[in-house]
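JOB MANIFEST
job_type = single_chain_structure
chain_count = 1
residues = 70
[input]
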Amino acid sequence: MMIPIRCFTCGNLVGDKFASFQSRVKEGEDPAQVLDDLGLKRYCCRSMLISSVDVIDQVLPFYTKKAEQR
């Protein structure tokens, strides 16, 4: 997964908090409360964690088709 290391807007470190955020949300905690506990108060930093998507699963089928054409 490609997790941004820093917030694109303010430059705050967010990459080190992603694993903790993901595991706590999967356990059933409220995402807003988890972000508050991790110290992410700005909406730009919060959106970096909430909106991250695992793109490798979406890109990989196109890569294998391109490799087959060669």
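[summary]
The radius of gyration is 15 Å.
The mean pLDDT is 87.
exit_status = 0
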